[in-house]
Amino acid sequence: MYSYIKGIIEEVYLDKIILENNGIGYEINVSTYTAQSVQKGKSAKIFTKLIVREDDISLCGFASKTELEMFKLLTSVSKIGPKVGLGILSSATPQQLSAYILSEDIAKLSKCPGVGKKTAERIILELKDKVDKDTAEFEATLFNQQPTGLELDEALEALLALGYSTSEAKDAVQKFKKDGLKTEDIIKKSLTYLMSK
Question: b/e for 165-196, b at 16 or more Cβ within 10 A?
Fold first, then answer.
């Protein structure tokens, strides 16, 4: 019904935003990533998906078409509703999720909120042939082929959990991807770098 809504961001919360368009304030459920990518008082274009249920009608919104497409894929998996879909997108980017799915990384998918081992297995089984292989391969190259791939990934997740945007976290982590650095050291150095900006 709605492809996207353009307007002024009136309020920003952890899991939703209020977007005003022609005097109407739309309450839109969003991922943490989308919430961090908009600014109160600024204009924004939010891609939307209308969710209709017996007892509720709500809007889910996304900063990019890529995130919207991943949301549609995730919610096509049985037992994954809009809330869990947004929770998953709050803990990993669409590109990271594609990489996890293609590499059948059950452990990383299981870390997402609302996702247990069985759900992670179901996501992989149902979406492996549907995700974008090009962006996933880029993501895998960026993090998984480094000598300290696991440490980089864990450091990135920690920075995202602390509220930094994906671009800020990646920028900081990439600066300290030296061999031999432990996760804690990468996080400490990255935080020092981000706070000095």
Answer: ebebbbbbbeebbeeebebeebbebbbeeeee
